[in-house]
Predict the structure.
Amino acid sequence: MNENYAVPAVALVVVATVFVGAFGLRISRTTSDFYVASRTVGPRLNAAAISGEYLSAASFLGIAGLVLVQGPDMLWYPVGYTAGYLVLLLFVAAPLRRSGAYTLPDFAEARLASQAVRRLAGAFVVGVGWLYLLPQLQGAGLTLNVLTGASKPLGGIIVAVVVVATVAAGGMRSITFVQAFQYWLKLTALLVPALFLVLAWQGDGAPDRPFDEPATFREHRVVRIDAGLDLKLGRPLSVTATGTVDGERYEDERVRLPAGVHRIEQGTRLSFTKGDPVPVADRGSNGGMSTSLAAGREERPLYATYGLILATFLGTMGLPHVVVRFYTSPHGVAARRTTVAVLGLIGAFYLLPPVYGALGRLYAPELTLTGDADAAVLLLPDRVIGGLGGDLLGALVAGGAFAAFLSTASGLTMAVAGVLTQDVLPSRGVRHFRLGTVLAMIVPLAASSIVGGLPVADAVGLAFAVSASSFCPLLVLGIWWHRLTPPGAAAGMIVGGGSALLAVAATMAGFPGTGSLHALLAWPALWSVPLGFLTMVLVSLATPGRVPVGTAAILARFHLPEELAGGQVRAEVKA
Amino acid sequence: MSGFLAGLCVAVLPLLAAGFWLGRRTSRPSSLGGLGTPVEHATFETLHTASLAAPPLRAGLTGETARRSARRLRTLLGTDALCLTDQDTVLAWEGVGEHHRDQIMERLGGPLETGRGEAFRLDCDEPYCPLRWAVVAPLTVDDRVHGALVACAPRESAVLVRATGEVARWVSVQLELADLDQSRTRLIEAEIKALRAQISPHFIFNSLAVIASFVRTDPERARELLLEFADFTRYSFRRHGDFTTLADELHAIDHYLALVRARFGDRLSVTLQIAPEVLPVTLPFLCLQPLVENAVKHGLEGGGGKVDKSRITITAQDAGAEALVVIEDDGPGMDPDRLRRILSGEVSPSGGIGLSNVDDRLRQVYGDDYGLVIETALGAGMKITARLPKYQPGVHSAGRLPRE
């Protein structure tokens, strides 16, 4: 990849983001434009902003990587990420808007009138936010590493610094425009190169069925193994190796490897010739965590798939940066319309990453070996098209990837910093918001340097699982069940969300590597979500005296259209 | 290995938080223990318990507040059971022997009538029930009996009678304060009504005069202005709800400015920067319009001599969980001391009541952190900043769908 084009593209995206954020509103308006100025954010603009904030590194890079490595089963990821908004539309969007809550803790307080539940919800917002920020920073590191060869933490640090600086300086004032701009940028950055890639693929004779047979190298290719791994060969294979294979040093020598498992040490270069089948990395034995989730998936494919579906379907509604955006809708009906538009926008976007995944399987199969499968989207334009065109398209994709990190990371940082300032740090004020911003970013940044290469999409899946087990019961029961009590809500969040959090922590720590227990821990949503619901219902039923006063009135406000609710208030005043 | 380390960190963090919380919860008594003699210690304990019982009672005597304060009050008195009643029911029973509820309620008729405390023997069929005596002390606010505090004990004790009387008097004081809070709220409501009434005369006469001047020369303009006038007065005189959205308030300001501009023509120019994100923010009704009116008055009429031209800037920004509204004029400004006196209610010149009323209402609704911030000096214009939280419990507009 030619960094002469990619680095300016990334820099351009950063500058454009800061510029639109800071100056999008500075264009002064005179009184004749008053109506233009006071027009609320329309559903389409808001939907683009929500999509811009939502489509993170996991969507931009991660899905293509997973499809490349593990095939079409992984299409459940984009389906789940999209369908989450369907659940949001059906059960949550309009009542949430009508509740008047800005953040999830606000909702907990509005519904249950309890400071304790509010603080607990705040703690989970921070937890989910940090879990979600982690893969964004890792993705940024990976991108910069692929583009320029810089060390991996650098990209994450750059994103962290840019986001903290703009958010803390109040540069995200016109955040709706920034995020909407980012959505269209991301769509363009994937769509345009995808069109060229498909054209090139057709010019290549349109080779199909990339997932049917073991992938083969389409040309002579040198692969550098960054982390030691075990290769599993189905039949003998000849490669040219520089480095250590099975404990023996080779210096640019031809090696014939018999069928079986071979240990390749770190830093080894293997040259494959055209037509060689791509060897499979033996999972579960390479010590890192990058494949631990995949191992669980292989052992219990049905369970893993359902766990993923449940987490993504129900987790979307608890994402802190998505929830705050619904406040921008002027009323409940607009919130619903917005959600429908979001479904369309991200549905369109998610058609693209699988294309990259499939083409990556054909043209960059060695990525399954190096553990950098997430980089497939970045490498493909150069690999397939090449030349100046490939460089320019690669630069476009790189810019889009950085837009993905910046938009999601800034949205999350604002949400987490808001909760930290309001509910955790002692007193309020601008200075504390800045402190909150730094705190919101520094924890995931530190964690990203400790935690290694969990695939980006999998790490996001874990954040979804925690969100689905804690906030989904709170929101759904809070909106639809009048007997919910503060102790019930608190117990449900602690048991459901807490157990999911522990499972996630255990998975990240690589405990235990295999077996059904590992599958249970790696895909916690399937048991932790029902557990959360059950605890919330049972504890609420056990504490019937603690149903907050005025629950009926609050629920009426959640569910009645604003005009009717206004009429009700009028009737009360008259009575 | 690094993965294990990370997982360990994630697992240890909640534990640390829990430990921190527990430590804070348990450290309080021991830190008190270090303070002085046992007598002083006991005094501190008592004062601390009393201070914990006070906040719920400040919201008045209801089932919920009684339940929350009864536990602290029982600790304070150290009895086996304690109950709080209003005129006709037991609001909260704390401790053992709840089967005495009805019996106590029957005996309360006298004390609630006379407002004098008494002690009586409780008859009980259960052999192990420790409650044999009940001490009743009425809770009075402004010499009216609101309810009673009943402490139950195994035997008659003069100390308990005395202590119950004192605690009841202390509770009565809290209830009187609650009453005071309510009066304050009512006062502010009355002020809003006064403000609505205050808008009318001056503004209505001027507006009508302006419209009249256009009737012959430019009938179409006159008609438009009349419609603006109708819209503005409809908004200001609306009867329902204390809260509105920023979008609606800005619409009203727009109508108001249209009328004012018709009167002053080119002498007034207005610049607006409104972030669309903050338009759904809920705020107290007629909270910004008085500020704009104030800016117009100051910019064009203030400081004695007439000013030729005035420029008003209105900005509404998105600032995290708050909306920031700034209204700025380049008029002659005001002496900060005079402004301070106006805001504290010492002097009430014409137009000043708007500012202090808005300030009071913002503080009342959002707390003292959210009062108006006014920057001004003689000859330097005036800049008024209002911070509006996007969410505040109890604040929601009786919203309406905007006209399509």
The longest helix of chain B spans residues 158-217. Chain B has eleven helices and twelve strands. Chain B touches chain A through 52 residues (CB under 8 Å).
